Automatic annotation (TrEMBL):
Transmembrane segments: none annotated. Residues 1-320 form the Acetyl xylan esterase domain. It is an enzyme of class 3 (hydrolase). Keywords: Hydrolase. GO terms for biological process: polysaccharide metabolic process. This is Cephalosporin-C deacetylase. The active site is at 188 (nucleophile), 274 (charge relay system), 303 (charge relay system).
Length: 325
């Protein structure tokens, strides 16, 4: 994919106006208060697997509306509480297998890998284990992007973001975790989720936000021909009178509006040839982020971003950040 977006010098200054509903904060305060009224009911079931350097738990907890959300909790064997990375997953993926998630424990961190409800059912490499019992009553395009999109109360990502916020409490509930050193992390969809959670749960220590999806929706659907954003385009191509309603709903979930509320340290990444999550959408969020921030720029990469190179950047970033505590 050739360079197709703004040149880097303009990207570094790209800070578009935000389309923010007047009741954005009230909407999320109400949503999270409803969830908090439910028992979190975390269950950590030991998982037998011959990985002697770590302990592995099959996790479940009550997410939005009490629906059970699954995950893996992998923690290094240590003398005391350790930092924890809460890991959110890219679009269509599930939690996968415990041995997929050993990098953070090898670095001395626990990791809580959170299933994304309704996803991972057809992903052989990263199967999921969590259903989405709640469906929107309106039409939708195939995929998850337009599920319940005609009303913010029904939209799919209201449930996903609520699950993700609750997962931070799950991590803090385990005695092996240092509750003052919980970090949220993810790439693509997972990056968009981490970005939102860091804004909604300002108590987390940091956010690792790689090539984030779910950000600057209006520009994304106008300049990329790739899924998942094209799911919205296909929906609008048939539901022709619903554009205002759709973008109103999306404004409650747009990473720009969460970034404007982000206060914790954040390490972003962006790939300049990324036609799935265009670089201008990433820089738009990064430039709105209010807390201490850094961004790794990968000029010659598409949506894979920095890959393993970015993981090394994250190790170094967190080592310094948490050592300076």
């Amino acid at each position: 994919m050739p360079l197709f977006d703004l040149p880097l010098e303009r990207l570094r200054e790209y800070r578009p106006e935000r389309d923010e509903p007047a009741d954005f904060d009230d909407f999320w305060a109400r949503t999270l208060a409803e969830a908090a009224a439910l028992d979190l009911a975390p269950v950590f079931t030991p998982y037998e697997i011959p990985l002697p350097a770590v302990e592995v738990f099959d996790v479940s907890f009550a997410g939005w509306d009490g629906h059970r959300i699954n995950g893996w909790f992998v923690v290094p064997k240590a003398d005391g509480p350790v930092p924890c990375v809460v890991q959110y997953i890219g679009y269509s993926g599930g939690r996968g297998f415990p041995h997929d998630h050993l990098a953070w424990p090898a670095a001395g961190y626990a990791v809580l890998v959170v299933d994304t409800r309704g996803q991972g059912g057809a992903n052989i490499n990263a199967p999921g284990a969590t259903a989405d019992p709640h469906g929107g009553g309106s039409p939708q395009a195939p995929g998850m992007m337009t599920r319940g999109i005609l009303a913010p109360e029904d939209y799919y990502y209201r449930r996903v973001f609520t699950d993700a916020v609750r997962a931070v409490d799950v991590a803090a509930a385990h005695p092996a975790v240092d509750g003052g050193r919980i970090v949220v992390s993810g790439g693509s969809q997972g990056g968009g989720i981490a970005q939102a959670v860091a804004a909604l749960r300002g108590e987390v220590r940091a956010a690792l936000v790689d090539v984030p999806f779910l950000t600057h929706f209006r520009r994304a659907v106008e300049i990329t021909g790739r899924d998942p954003y094209q799911e919205i385009v296909r929906f609008l191509a048939t539901q022709r009178g619903s554009a205002d309603q759709v973008f109103r709903t999306l404004s409650y979930f747009d990473g720009l509006n969460f970034a404007a509320r982000g206060r914790v340290p954040a390490l972003y990444s962006v790939a300049l040839m990324d036609d799935v999550c265009p670089p201008s959408t990433v820089f738009a969020a990064y430039n709105h982020w209010q807390g201490p921030k850094e961004i790794a720029v990968w000029p010659w990469n598409n949506h894979e971003g920095g890959g393993g190179f970015q993981k090394e950047e994250q190790f170094r970033y967190l080592h310094k950040l948490l050592s300076d505590r």
